[in-house]
Amino acid sequence: xxxxxxxxxxxxxxxxxxxxxxxxxxxxxxxxxxxxxxxxxxxxxxxxxxxxxxxxxxxxxxxxxxxxxxxxxxxxxxxxxxxxxxxxxxxxxxxxxxxxxxxxxxxxxxxxxxxxxxxxxxxxxxxxxxxxxxxxxxxxxxxxxxxxxxxxxxxxxxxxxxxxxxxxxxxxxxxxxxxxxxxxxxxxxxxxxxxxxxxxxxxxxxxxxxxxxxxxxxxxxxxxxxxxxxxxxxxxxxxxxxxxxxxxx
Length: 249
Description:
Number of strands: 5
Oligomer: single chain
Shape: elongated
């Protein structure tokens, strides 16, 4: 009997935290078409850590939403709530348990409840003040400074509501977080030469600013090593000259 592979497809089957892929193909045996499959490697997706009550609840809920989408795809409202409650941690779970059932009977209501509860713990003006005064510390490399800025920016809610031109359309949020990170990254640099280089090159994103300054830092480190080697060579040659003078005497 002759068999021939007619078509092939890869299908993902998902459960919480694990994505399994199966390869399906269609074979033809004497005019009869049958579907075959073989299981491929599983992809493990780690769940979010329990919620830190000092951090931004909105960003945490976004993280949970991405996890649910990546690990489970489209699921029911009840399953979304179950996943959220299983990862959010004991402190936030206490808030959910103590709330009336009418405020927790849907996933959206649970998210609204958490945002309202933890809103008072976050003062946006204070968080933005901290962000605007952050400077690159002495001996801190650009990547560490960049990470600190990005972490703080998540607490600042750098977005603004824009009304659509059409009255029938819903207002949209314009996120300007990346622009703020880029500006602070440049303003907070502790090396004037790096800042001047950024002004000359005009990188368009904070990632490009970081890349440019990183290259300058690496070049400076290499120059310091070369200078150190030169000093060692000079010191050795001086010692040799002194020994020769002593021998002549």
